[in-house]
Specification:
Length: 169
């Protein structure tokens, strides 16, 4: 990874949820943002897995992923659910595996997931995929959001990853 890309990656996740460029986003990413925002409490409460109704996200399910936050040192992330379209684009089902089991891009992806947990904040990016995938997919848009069963302490993440063969726009 180039130093320029590392600097870019380190800035990811600093955009507040309300400042995302919704009009420019993939419709599936936008749908998850809208549903998530509707579930957030005015007192800073964030939704938990129990608040998510898959029927509200049918258009997103093929590109949806959820990870369990596994406490420890270091913290790990286990893929609990991986949408069918992502399974096809990755080339295998990674459900039940840990993010840190992959080669290439894991450090940056792990930093992003840790940011979501540590700051109870979203992480959104567009760019080249960091984790392994089939070679025809050269570009992605990815959103990762925190979930907390108790509304405060992040114990899962929910996100969408849209992989395409070229940049959009």
């Amino acid at each position: 990874m180039t130093a320029e890309f590392e600097r870019f990656w380190d800035e990811i996740g600093t955009v507040p949820l309300d400042s995302l460029p919704l009009a420019e986003m993939d419709s599936r990413v936008r749908l998850l943002v809208e549903r998530y925002k509707a579930l957030c409490g005015p007192d800073g409460r964030i939704p938990g897995r129990q608040d998510i109704d898959p029927a509200d996200l049918t258009a997103v399910l093929p590109v949806l992923h959820m990870m369990d936050v596994v406490p420890g040192s270091p913290r790990r992330f286990r893929y609990r659910l991986v949408g069918t379209r992502l399974v096809t684009q990755i080339g295998r089902d990674i459900t039940g595996t840990y993010m840190d089991e992959y080669k290439g891009g894991v450090d940056a992806a792990h930093r992003s997931a840790n940011h979501v947990v540590d700051h109870r904040a979203m992480s959104w990016r567009r760019g080249q995929p960091l984790l392994p995938h089939l070679p025809e997919y050269k570009w992605l848009e990815r959103l990762l959001l925190p979930l907390a069963r108790d509304g405060r302490n992040v114990d899962m993440t929910i996100g969408v990853t849209v992989l395409v063969d070229r940049p959009t726009g």
